Amino acid sequence: MRILIAEDNPQLGEGLAVGLRQSGFAVDWVRDGQSADLALQTEAFDLLVLDLGLPQLSGMEVLNRARSRGQTLSILVLTARDATGDKVAGLDAGADDYLVKPIDLDELSARIRALARRSVGRAAPLLVHGEFALDPAARRLTRCGAPVELSTREFSLLQLLLENSGRVLTRTELEQSLYGWGDEPGSNALDVHIHHLRRKLGSELIRTLRGVGFTIPK
Ligand code: CA
């Protein structure tokens, strides 16, 4: 899952980026509204964490522009403690959720997972496929109830394939979701992760469609 953070406060932006990366998300961070607006038009993000008080272009303007372009990504706005009117204005303008500063990282991660579930139309927090059950919140995978150890990237890759089970995900789609800017994967990084997943989970689960991408059949 790829997240764009738009936050001009360096400490908060850095803290959010580091914290969300540790939670297994691919994160990009911009510090002003203009850059956020541009990034949204050039890259595919699943979710935007948007400070409303941004320089150059306000967060509200970024939000309005994204929605008027028809972009449906989840948007979570960050508002100042004393700006109560902002919450309502943000939600009315098409934000999916809001958090009031100071931000608690655990709460932010939980809200992001909830938005991710909602965006794929799934109410249950567990992704179950045959013998496998993946818990995105606990970042835990079990097979017939027994835990399976995965690296952060392997886990994110498997989650993405399970969320889209029945659909073929292209190499580009997978790489865009797994990696942020300045975090360029080596040309065969994806194949290495797939190889490791097959070694741990069996060769049948993930299918390769040569020249197209990968899928987990329903
Ligand atoms: Ca700000």
Write the layout of secondary structure elements.
Blueprint: E1 2-6, H1 10-22, E2 26-30, H2 33-42, E3 47-51, H3 59-68, E4 74-79, H4 84-92, E5 97-100, H5 105-119, E6 127-129, E7 132-135, E8 140-143, E9 146-148, H6 152-163, E10 169-170, H7 171-178, H8 189-201, E11 207-209, E12 213-215
Parallel strand pairs: 1-2, 1-3, 3-4, 4-5
Antiparallel strand pairs: 6-7, 7-8, 8-9, 10-12, 11-12
Calcium ion binds next to loops.
What does this structure look like?
The chain folds into two domains: 2-119, Rossmann fold (3-Layer(aba) Sandwich), CATH 3.40.50; 127-215, Winged helix-like DNA-binding domain superfamily/Winged helix DNA-binding domain (Arc Repressor Mutant, subunit A, Orthogonal Bundle). Strand 1 (2-6), helix 1 and strand 2 (26-30) form a beta-alpha-beta unit. The protein is elongated. The strands form three sheets. Strands 2-1-3-4-5 form a five-stranded parallel sheet, with helices on both faces. It has a four-stranded antiparallel sheet with strand order 6-7-8-9, covered by helices on one side. A three-stranded antiparallel sheet has the order 10-12-11. The longest helix is centred in the middle third of the chain and has 15 residues, at 105-119. The protein contains eight helices and twelve strands. With 218 residues, it is α/β, with parallel strands linked by helices. It has helices at 10-22, 33-42, 59-68, 84-92, 105-119, 152-163, 171-178, 189-201; strands spanning 2-6, 26-30, 47-51, 74-79, 97-100, 127-129, 132-135, 140-143, 146-148, 169-170, 207-209, 213-215. Helix 2 packs parallel to helix 3 (59-68) and helix 6 (152-163) packs across helix 8 (189-201). The structure holds calcium ion (CA). The site of calcium ion has 5 residues, from loops. Calcium ion is lined by residues 8-9, 51, 53-54.
